[in-house]
Amino acid sequence: MKRLCAFSFARRLFKPRTTQHTHSQESKEKMEQSPIFDYQELKESMEKSPMINANNNFDSQESRESMEKSPLVTVNNNFDSQSAKENGKETGSYAATNIILNHEFSDGLHSWHPNCCDAFVVPAGSGYHKGLASEEGCCYAVVSNRKECWQGLEQDITSRVSAGSTYTVSACVGASGTFQGSVEVLTTLKLVYQNSETSYLFIAKKSASKECWGILEGSFSLSNMPDQVIFYIEGPPAGTDLLIKSVVISCPSSTACDSSGTSSVCTDDDNIIINPQFDDGLNSWSGRGCKVALHNSMADGKITPMSGKAFASATERTQSWNGIQQDVTGRVKRKLAYEVTAVVRIYGNNVTSADLRSTIYVKAADNRERYIGIASVQATDKDWVKLQGKFLINDSPSQVVVFLEGPPAGTDILLNSLVIKHAAKAPPPSPPVIEDAGFGINIITNTSLNDGTNGWFPLGNCTMSVQTGSPHIMPPMARDSLGAHEPLSGHYILVANRSQNWMGPAQIITDKVKLYLTYQVSAWVKIGKTSGPQNVNVALGVDSQWVNGGQAEINDDKWHEIGGSFRIEKQATKVMVYVQGPAAGVDLMVAGLQIFPVDRLARFRHLKRQTAKLHKRDVMLKFSGSDSGSLFGTFVRVRQLQNSFPFGSAITRTNMDNEDFNAFFVKNFNWAVFGNELKWYWTEAQQGNLNYKDADELLDFCTKNNIQVRGHCIFWEVVGTVQAWVQSLNKNDLMTAVQNRLTGLLTRYKGKFPHYDVNNEMLHGSFYQDRLGKDIRVNMFKTANQLDPSPILFVNDYHVEDGCDTRSYPEKYIEHILDLQEHGAPVGGIGIQGHIDSPVGPIVCSALDKLGILGLPIWFTEVDVSSDNEYVRADDLEVMLREAYAHPAVEGIILWGFWELFMSRSNAHLVNAEGELNEAGKRYLALKHEWSSHPHGHIDEQGQFSFSGFHGSYEVEVVTVSKKITKKFVVDKGDNALVISIDIS
Questions:
Q1: pLDDT tens per residue, range 49-86
Q2: What string of DSSP letters covers 762-823?
Q3: Rounded to whole angstroms, how far apart are CA atoms 891 and 538?
Q4: Do the beta carbons of residue 184 and residue 192 sit within 8 Å?
Q5: Which of 488, 553, 668, 934 is the most exposed place for a label (fewest CB within 10 A)?
Q6: How far apart, in whole angstroms, are the C-alpha atoms of residue 72 and residue 51?
Q7: Across the chain, what does the average pLDDT equal?
Q8: SS (H, E, C) 270-339
Q9: More confident of the two residues 131 and 537
């Protein structure tokens, strides 16, 4: 952006943002019930390339404009204690700390930079400008060689200002030159935003003369925090020297400024909660829709504080969201992660146990309102319990309130203490050390049953016997992992006299399971006569926890494969594996049970070969032109600009307030999906009150950055995700509302979303089908296609690929899709969400192979993996990405987020809350690098250069004796070698 002089400032004032639609508390509660993006919405530090301004004497306008496009880095902008001490010498009305460094030029031009001109400091008492009064005893800066009115002196103040605070500016200025009378001196802010145009904010102006110093005064406030804030003094006409004796920028409310700045020092011991243990009564505390009271004890002395002398209660609660609260506005800093620890319990209303939550209410500078769920705990009326969680705020809000909520109306919330501190940095992780993994070795004793039932025992009061007649071949998914293997014995365990569904054969495997190893589970199972479909499950009892090792649904008298996986990450005292599931009275048969650790690296080698066949193409560059005869031996460098395969991530509107998140996202993804903002409960939380602002802003952001977006989702079948007002409609009104939703969404965004998930999770929910009949699902697809024929219409569901859910295994998904198509639904794509634990390649691949038979494009739409160990998480992510990328039916991969505290699952992030790339993030970037091509070499005797490259866009650079030529080209899919002619004449 070209800078303007004083007369043009009116044309570059900031436009106020429109007010955001706010959600009611009722709609907020409904959103809390859905298992989606949590409330927390998705900081990755991008590798910025700041230009260090070593020499600011730019002569040309072109140089200056290019300088403005790059963020400037000052030599030293550390606001240390010494600087604060020096700046504290200011007197008058500025009692708060001056954020300007070297404000009186006593240290020369340190921290100051001339903007495309020259500058120097005149020593005190030099008499350099004799017309100026009060010059004795003071040094000052002279800005000379000014060829434009906007040239002057600047200082980067980014790290010392924050959004939401008001700053006052006072500068002592003068001028020198051939002018008559006076000239205008201005103060201005340059505001640099990542991926958007630089803006300039006028602060104040003052007439200055050659006879005396003038005091320029003004103020400013930032509604949001830019990537960079540069303070300028400028304004006099070209040729006039600008004189500056001192500059003060301060915040009259120093506490507010210090508390809300992005760079203020926040130690791990600083609790932002005032009066955290009620030592000062109820000071700083209040009730949120209820009353609060202070107690030394309750219930005839049965309830006393766990620590301290008192506790508080939130009483007379009439809604679940009522509770005790504290306003922490100004004490929470943006882009910092905070840990919350509260000691809580409940009392009264005959409720002995209830979910108790800590929540942050945030009101943005533009009046947007949102709630961030921090943590929850099952509180009781028996003992104090600890509630712990973390949160992060991306923007600089006008109000922040923390409160407790959750128990039913009439139940008191008791709070003994609340601490909110800057989250301590986790120690560097270590990869798990696993010795003698024994890949492929079965840890089950007497699998063949050649030794009768030795090693086995019946779980429960049932009987076991060994029979013959089971399959002799290994189940397919196990065979894919193990390769050639001995035939099975044909023996199986028959479990009869089952009086409970959990009864079946069992083994103790405690000493055989190694931590952090991923185990594959495989077995043949069969059931006796039954009147309906039965679930059979290989389960593990890990101390008191149930772990799913795989499931199958059986509705006949044939042998079925069970395939699944598990991993144990904490030492257990007892691990038992058992097979269970059919209803009481139904016989259960089990053969060839295998549990073995999988060799992922061996699988990766296979996948790399598959990937190269699928996503790479031979390319021949043929060079021609006037110099073609002398090109032999010329150096060629090829660089892939972007892989054409879709790699995307979920994003949310609040993520866009974090410039670090934006930078990482734009750099590393080419597709997106909105976490919540397109869903019906978000766009119409209250009937008739439409909110498309969030979706519009996200779509605009993606469009500007050339990122395509999946439309997720038009409807959601799971009843817990349907707004209360929709659930309350009668059949006719519900049908009308469904039609209005389709018409409103599809016409508003016609042609803008290349995909739509039409009715999310139809295998796991049936709200609309139950209320409106089976035809409604087909009609949703048909109507969407009529309103906007351009997007591919997807089904989308979870647990399709992991073998652990009998509601959504591949065969059932195929049956579901075919049924829709047979009734006329234009289903064009298959969405597999990919929320998976301990993935095993052959199990994932098996599901893809089965679904691939339909001939529809398959997308992984919501991939996330979870482990508290970053290295294990990285391994899991690599399994999913490699399996998906290597499969011919998969045409895109979308992660369900990547930033800590903004994902639906904990321990699933790639980037820590404050922007540090963790091991999973490093693995993702390493894979992206592996899947890009950057060959280099020399042109051969035929004037050619050949390579094999991944599909995508490229740039080739050829350097001859006389010139450097750069050309761009695209490598698309194809079986034959791609020949590209490049004319370098």
A1: 322 222 333 333 333 233 232 222 222 222 233 333 33
A2: TTT--HHHHHH-THHHHHHHHHHHHH--SSEEEEEESSSSSS--TTS-HHHHHHHHHHHHHT
A3: 32
A4: no
A5: 934
A6: 6
A7: 87
A8: CCCCCCCCCCCCCCCCEEECCEEEEECCECCCCECCCCCCCEEEEECCCCCCCEEEEECCCCCCCCCEEE
A9: 537
DSSP state of 899: B
N residues, the chain: 985
CB 577 within 8 Å of CB 590: no
Amino acid at 438: G
DSSP-assigned letters across all residues of 353-388: EEEEEEEEEEE-TT--EEEEEEEEEEEESSS-EEEE
Query: Across the strands, what pairs with 216?
Result: 171
List, as one string, the DSSP characters of 73-128.
E-S-----HHHHHHHTT--TT--SPP-STTTT-TTTTTT-EESSSEEEEEPTT--S
With contact defined as beta carbons under 8 Å apart, do 371 and 401 qualify? no
Q: Which helix (H) or strand (E) holds 715?
A: strand 708-716
Asked whether 506 and 457 are in contact (CB, 8 A), the reply is: yes
- The label of the residue with tokens 């004083």 reads 6
pLDDT at residue 129, as a whole number: 61
Q: What distance in Å separates the CA atoms of residue 687 and residue 637, rounded to the nearest whole number?
A: 59
In whole angstroms, give the CA distance from residue 781 to residue 773: 15
Using only the alpha carbons of the chain, give its radius of gyration: 34
In the Cβ-directed half-sphere of 366, how many Cα atoms lie within 13 Å? 15
Contacts of 178 (CB under 8 A, 6+ apart): 239, 240
734 touches 772 (CB < 8 A): yes
> Which pLDDT belongs to residue 778?
98
pLDDT tens by residue, 486-514: 999 999 999 999 999 999 999 999 999 99
**Would the CA dihedral through 529, 531, 533, 538 be positive or negative?**
negative
Angle between helices 870-885 and 600-615 (to 10 degrees): 40
On whether the CB atoms of residues 655 and 701 are closer than 8 A, the answer is no
Torsion of CA 434, 438, 439, 445, to 10 degrees: -130
Provide the CB-side half-sphere exposure for 109 (13 A, CA).
Answer: 20
The structure tokens listed for 291 are: 């009353």
Opening angle at CA 903, ends 362 and 39, nearest 5: 30
Judged against a pLDDT cut of 70, whether residue 923 lies above it is answered with yes
Q: Each residue of 539-583: pLDDT tens digit?
A: 999 998 999 999 999 999 999 999 999 999 999 999 999 999 999
Question: Given a cut of 90, is residue 137 above it in pLDDT?
Answer: no
Please, what is the angle between helix 870-885 and helix 841-852, to 10°? 30
| Residue with token string 């779509």 | 699
Please state, in angstroms and rounded to a whole number, the distance separating the CA atoms of residues 263 and 334.
9
Write out the catalytic residue numbers: 761, 862
C-beta neighbour count of 916 within 10 angstroms: 14
Complete DSSP assignment for 17-46: PPPPP---HHHHHHHHHSSSS-SS------
Closest CA to 905 of 854, 851, 867, 943: 867
Report the alpha-carbon distance of residue 966 to residue 964 in Å, rounded.
Answer: 7
Does residue 271 surpass a pLDDT of 70?
A: yes
Above 70 in pLDDT, residue 135?
A: no
Q: Angle between the 841-852 and 810-822 helix axes, to the nearest 10 degrees?
A: 20
Give 89-119 pLDDT, tens digit per residue: 333 333 357 889 888 888 788 889 898 888 8
Residue-level pLDDT at 3: 39
User: Bridge-partner residues for 618, per DSSP?
Assistant: 948
- pTM for this entry: 0.75
Torsion sign, CA atoms 711, 715, 718, 719? positive
